[in-house]
Every structure is written in structure tokens, then in C-alpha cells.
Design goal:
Blueprint lengths: L9 H106 L1 H11 L36 H10 L3
Amino acid sequence: MIVDYYETSPRKEEEFEEFLEEQIERNNRVIERKAKQREKLKREKIKEEAKIKRESKKNVKVITGLCIFFALFSIIGYRVFLINNSLKEKENLKAQLAEIKKQNEQLQVTIEQQMNLNTIEQEAKEKLGMRKLDNNQKVYVNLNKEDYTQSSVKTENGSEKETWWAKLLKDLFNIE
């Protein structure tokens, strides 16, 4: 048989129970504190997530605004580019027009100089060996004063008074 050398006295049992109760209470307080801490951490986490969502919405708004600004700036810049190109083209065309007008005036002066009768006569004498006609070289011809031209417009008697449907019938049936 085994003999228990340690005897427990009622007083030690009470102390042990008190000790156990204190340990249980302490553990319960620790569990409650940890639960409160977890609850607090959950609330803080929820607050952080809400804060992150607000900041992300704010960032999205800022980025959207920047994109819109950049798009508008790009459109305006492109329009300015197009306007500048058309102005350069207009200036180039004006310069070409001025050059063409200058050349035209020079050609007009050249033509007027060449159309001068004295110049023509001088070139005819020098280059072609021509000379003025004498009276014995001139031959005069008498022409009848008849008009040899034909009118292209046909005039028919009474056709002006005919109605359009009568003209149509004549055209269809070749009636004259």
C-alpha cells in the first residue's frame, strides 16, 4: 500500500481554492483585456480601412482631375499646333503669291517691251530680213458686201406660239 506523506489540511485546501479562484479571475481578466484589445484592434483596423478608402477615393479624384487636365491641355496644345501650322502655310502662300505677282509684273513689262511696234519692226528687219512694202507691191481687192455667215439659231414661223405639248408631239412623230 502506498502511503501519502503529504497530507492536505483544510486550510491549505481553502488557500489552494482561493489561489485557483485568483488564477481563474486573473486569467479571466487577461482574457477580457485581450478581448478588449482585439475589439480595439478591430475598431482601429476598421477605422484604418475607412481612412484608406477615403484616401484612395481622394487619390482617385485627384488622378482623375489630373487626367482631365492633361487631356484638356493636350487638346488645347494640339489646336494651337494646328493653328500655327495653318498660319505658317498662309504666310508661305502669301510669300508665293507675292513672288508670282512680281514675276507676273516682270513678264508684263517684258511683253509690253516686245509688243512695241518699233521693237517688232526692228526684229523683223534684223532677224528675218524683212522690209516695208512699196506702193507697187500693194494689190487692192474689191469684195462684194454680202454677208456670208450663217446663223446657228433656226427660226421657224409660228413655233414660238406653239404650246409645249404640241412641240412634244411633233418631236415624237417627226411632224414638221
